[in-house]
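Running this now, will post back.
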Amino acid sequence: MCEAKTIEIVDGLTAKAREVATRLGWKLGRHEDGSIVAKTECPRCGGSGHYSRCETYGTRCFGCDVASGGTAVGFVWANAEKLAKKTLAAERKAARVAKVLDADRAAFAALAGFVSYDDLEESGRVLSFKRAEAKAAAAAAAKAAAIAGLEFVGEIGEKLSIEATVASAFVVPGMNLGYKVLTSTLVKFHDASGNVFVWFSSAGFDAAKVGSTVKLVGTVKAHRTYEKTGERQTILTRCKIG
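Update: finished.
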């Protein structure tokens, strides 16, 4: 067990261990056996102080220093010399990996005709943005062209009988009567030419029919252009679905 104090003990440490402890701001203490220890994150709970739940002890981690009678929740005391060696070894390995990675990146950038890898990354981001922008513009143009090709169907008051695909159906809330709210179902259809038909059904609609092709019989109530998209819609009433 470590003494309950967080004083900076540097006497007795090697120069390398002292440098690491100072640089990383370790809190040091002296173990009961006289060795110098450093306060570090508990490897079992990751510093949270909680690990698994049980009915008796809840989520308390029993790997922490506090489980051994200490005061450090979420931390343990490790031998400072050994911890410094492990830290330096990990830093050297990370430096070697970074050096190799930088060399590979520089070679790759030179192969692609760029001065640095940062320039290559920036070029890639710009290219990706331009591709996404072009894709979005193409999709918008295609949608606009499709909408421009839509027509109103029939004359006001005319009864239509067509084959159409149920595109969507969703409930629209209406007047609140206090004891209930009146609702209707907005049903949208497309014919073989892509022309749009809209029906507000007060009797509801079977959502399972969305995506299926039906025989639609109804009377043209109005022609309207949807403001947000410019889509021409033929509004129907008194519809029957076959």
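The longest strand covers residues 159-176. More later if anyone needs it.
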